[in-house]
Amino acid sequence: MIKLVDIHKSFGSHEVLKGINLDVKPGEVIVVIGPSGSGKSTLLRCINRLEDVTQGHVYIDGEDITDPKNDVNRLRQKVGMVFQSFNLFPHLTALQNVTIALTRVQKLDSNTAEAKGRKNLARVGLAEKADYFPSKLSGGQQQRVAIARALAMEPEVMLFDEVTSALDPELVNEVLDVMKDLALGGMTMVCVTHEMGFAREVGTRAIFMDEGVIMEENTPAKLFSAPAHARTKAFLGKVLTQ
Predict the structure, then answer these.
(1) Rg of the chain over CA atoms, in angstroms?
(2) Is the CB of residue 184 less than 8 Å from the CB of residue 216?
(3) What is the distance between the alpha carbons of residues 84 and 92, in angstroms, rounded to a whole number?
(4) What is the DSSP letter of 89?
(5) For 53-112, what is each residue's pLDDT tens digit?
(6) Distance, CA of 188 to CA of 81 (rounded, Å)
(7) Out of 34, 46, 59, 182, which could bridge 3 as a Cys pair, Cβ 3.0 to 4.6 Å?
(8) For 105-226, where are the alpha helices, taking DSSP H only?
C-alpha cells in the first residue's frame, strides 16, 4: 500500500530524514514512536507530499507520488491525514467541515455530499453534532470531526500525527476509540503517537525513530518488552514509567 525508498528530507543544511525505507501492507497499523525532533511528523508529511522529499521515492498503491508527472492531488486523495491541531473552519458547522472537500474537490452534488458527511459523522459518534460550530464542540469532538472529514474522502490509508497530544487527558480515549474501530475495520494506518498503551494494543508493527532514522522495528509486544537497541531501551524506560 505504501512503499518508502531511501527517503531523505533536509530543511536547508539540516537533514531531518536520513534514508528511510519502509513497506506498509494493506490493513497494517504502523505505530511510530520516538523523541521529539526525531523526524516522525516529517515522515508522515512526506508520505502524502505535504513535504517534498529531498531524495528518494514514495509509492502509494504502486504509483510514485514523488514523480512530477503523476497527479499529486489525485494520489493524495487516497491518503487521509489527521493533524495534532484540528484545522477545522471555525465559520462552518461540523457537517460543512466534513462536506466541503466532497463538493469542491470530488465535485459531488450537495445532497450526496451531505449524506456522506452525516454517515461519517455517525461513524465517529457525532451524528447529533452535525449542525454545531467548532467553538461549541470539545477538543475531542473537534478531532473526531477532523477524522470524519478525512474518512469522507474514502482514503485507502489514514495518517495520524499525534492526534491526541493537544487534548485534555479525559478526552483522549474518545479519539483513540475511533482509531481502534478503524483498525478493527481493516483500515491501513500509520500513526505517530505518544500513547504507548494504544501503540501496544492496536499496532501490528511498531517503529522507533531517532535522529532521522528507523532505529528499530518489531511487533509492539516485542519492541516494548524486549527492545534490541540501547536507544530504544532508554526511550521506553523514560516514557513507560511516567
Answers:
(1) 18
(2) no
(3) 20
(4) -
(5) 999 999 999 999 988 888 888 888 889 999 988 889 999 999 999 999 999 988 999 999
(6) 12
(7) 59
(8) 110-123, 139-152, 169-184, 196-202, 220-225
Distance CA 194, CA 152 (A): 26
3-class SS of residue 186: coil
Determine whether 2 is exposed, middle or buried from the number of CB atoms within 10 Å of its CB (0-12, 13-18, 19+).
buried
**CA-angle at 192, arms to 191 and 197, nearest 5°:** 80
CA-nearest of 165, 171, 7 to 82 is 165
Give per-residue pLDDT as tens, 116-151: 999 999 999 999 999 999 999 999 999 999 999 999
CA-angle at 227, arms to 222 and 232, nearest 5°: 135
Q: Which residues pair with 77 in a beta bridge?
A: none
Looking at residue 17, what DSSP letter applies?
Answer: E
- For 49, the grid coordinates are 507530499
| Separation between Cα atoms, residue 80 and residue 154, nearest integer Å | 8
Cell 534514508, residue?
A: 19
DSSP annotation of 85: S
Chain Cα centroid distance, residue 123: 17
Question: 32, 40 in Cβ contact below 8 A?
Answer: yes
